[in-house]
What does this fold into?
Amino acid sequence: MSQTKQFMYVNRKAPYGTVYALESLEVVLIAAAFEQDVSLAFIDDGVYQIVRGQSPKALGMKNFSATYNALGDYDVRKLYVERESLEARGLSADDLMPIVYEDEDDDYAEKPSVQLVSRAEMAAIMAGQDVVLSF
It folds into this structure.
């Protein structure tokens, strides 16, 4: 019996101005639909992808940030945000969207998917993955 591989998608780019953020999100949703063990990492400008209150209208782009709220429905529960990347951009955990999942083992209680981790913790988490894809 084969064990499911762990896939981590590393988001390093701002959400708008390139296709990387949207394509990463689409690939994550597809992988999760096929029941892959998926996690996401947000580092560098990638932390902006899950900041609250995005309004890219002035850029002529559609706001896709609400799609992150669907991740829990696809059993994507591991979203790691590098603390140092947030701090370098003057952001804190309070600036991030409250992305949650429903824990079926706990009477479907909503629990946070986003975890703040240090750079060293992020490196250890990445080292434990079978596949790491960077966007």
Q: What stands out?
A: The helical segments are 20-33, 83-88, 119-127. Residues 25 and 67 are 8 Å apart (CA to CA).
